[in-house]
Model the fold of this input.
Amino acid sequence: MIRFILSDLRRLWAGSLVVVLLVALATALGVSVVLQERALRLGSARAADKFDLVIGAGGSETQLVLSSVFLQPSPLPLMPGDVLGKLAADPRVDWAAPIGFGDSFSGYPIIGTTTMLAQNLSGGLAEGKIFAREGEAVIGAAVKLSLDGEIKPMHGSLEEGGETHTELVYHIAGRLRPTGTAWDRAILVPIQAVWHIHGMEAEEHLEDGEQHEHEAVTGTDNTEHGHAHEKAGADHDGHEHHGEADPDAVLDESWTAGAPGLPAILVKPKTIADAYKLRQDYRSGNTVAVFPGEVLTNLYATLGDAKQILVAVASGAQALVAASLVLVTVIHIAQRRRQIGALRAFGAPRGAIFGIVWLEFFFLVAVGIALGFALGYAAALTLSGMFSQTSGITMPVGFAREDAALAAVLLAFATILAALPAVLAYRQSPAQALRA
Done:
């Protein structure tokens, strides 16, 4: 029987190939949707796990997490700079690191922060040292620059027509270890330098009129990633508010003086209980505190709805493929009536005819399903690689136990589908077949 089936498949290789490809493409569509959605969930969750608590000004919690954890460019409102001093002195806080946005270099975002975050973000350095002066920088693992290289910060991005700062040139002092997050594509510089090149001084040193101008500049240069460049220009007669920076200046991270306004602060609480207390304390007034994981849960709900739609589309495509396969097999059985009649005339029992037709069709569909899983995995791997290259977030693509259940369902459906042409062949009498 096996030899007969293999001989039949070689003789009808073109039709067999069409059946396999139809099943493979329909299966690959559904598998790639499932794998890609799972990879996105796992990748984003692992990226958020790096940060326990994020504090920012009142506004969208989702945008706060997207900007501070995933480094997505977007304007953020500013909170008072004295929040940083309070957090640094809070006994419930292990460390608190401010972050400032706005500049970029060669497509990589430049993030102003502190040595504390640079030391704790990836568990140490892969090479070099932590920045110790205003003119030094530390790069993420995925930044394609070399140590001792120069970084000329640009306000905003090249696509937006950003302007290169001439006040300071950073020199790369070290490289972080891989984190699997968007921070692998970031350039970390002292936030003290960011404040200085944007003309932002400590609040307690400014007069009332200067303080008003400082807040206006802080609200654009440090938070809106270049999108508010035109607004800042309008407010200052077409000139950006730049300051002066000393590349050899030693860093001062004591936060005893009032800091300029900040878009976000990353906080590492000492205990879980402290984390919940801090979140409660800073969820009132001008600030909001969020757990990135909780915000992602809401995003996952939205992704779940999108996944259901995509799965429905894939299921519809699979149903159409199944219907077309039924039509193809019915026509195929009609064309093989003489062959089936000859087998019956030579004494082949009906059960043998049923088994040959069923096994032949089931084999084709099963091969198509296996090929579809391989194609779906390859497609998800390719898409995840492209996303990881642009975002820096590692997207783990892999099969899980529930995928075995999906394969079992598809094979069970193939069993039923293959039975249709087999039943048609089983019911066919030798006399009718030979007269056809």
About this structure: Residues 118 and 396 are 25 Å apart (CA to CA). The mean pLDDT is 78.
